[in-house]
Design brief:
This protein has helices spanning 5-10, 15-79, 87-93, 110-120, 148-152, 157-166. It is mainly α and 173 residues long. It starts with a helix and ends in a 7-residue tail after the last helix.
């Protein structure tokens, strides 16, 4: 049943009372309407805040993923003996969009990535070789073949100088 002037007259209210009731009713209806509009505004703001939060979470998750992928790739660079001073340059130049992390925190198909590193960044790979002494002339094993007196007894000056140069240890230089 609607709240109308006729209904209120049937209840036995006077014109002033009817105007007062309808005025109060209109004010109450307007307050409810304002609350409903405010609620819709709040709902829209809450939805917008929820979307912003989801976007932020996705961004943070993406940054965390990128950091994890970069750390794993850096470990791969270290394993491949790339110069540590070049890591930052390589990390900036490398696109990690297609790189996939495994459950163990390591890169999937790491061997293929290692092959790419060896091919693309070969100039930055540090090669450390250990070379032993040459077996033909090991250090410290070379002994003079002639003594000082034998060398000085040579009459030809050119041959004597060559013998001195070959056996300089006997003369102390």
């Amino acid at each position: 049943m609607a709240l109308t002037q006729e209904f209120l007259k049937e209840l036995g209210l006077t014109e002033e009372q009817i105007e007062g009731v309808l005025g109060a009713w209109d004010a109450e209806v307007e307050a409810w309407r304002t609350q409903v509009e405010d609620a819709e505004t709040w709902r829209a703001q809450a939805e917008e805040a929820r979307r912003a939060l989801e976007d932020y979470r996705a961004e943070v998750e993406g940054q965390r993923r990128d950091a994890d992928v970069r750390a794993a790739y850096q470990r791969l660079l270290e394993r491949e003996h790339v110069d540590p001073r070049r890591w930052e340059l390589i990390l900036r130049a490398t696109s990690f969009d297609d790189v996939v992390m495994g459950e163990d925190g390591e890169l999937m198909n790491a061997e293929a990535l290692a092959e790419v590193i060896r091919r693309e960044w070969a100039d930055f790979i540090v090669v450390r070789e250990r070379r032993g002494a040459k077996v033909q002339t090991p250090p410290g094993n070379r002994r003079p073949t002639m003594s000082k007196s034998e060398i000085l007894s040579i009459r030809d000056t050119a041959q004597r100088q060559r013998a001195i140069a070959e056996n300089h240890e006997v003369f102390g230089f």
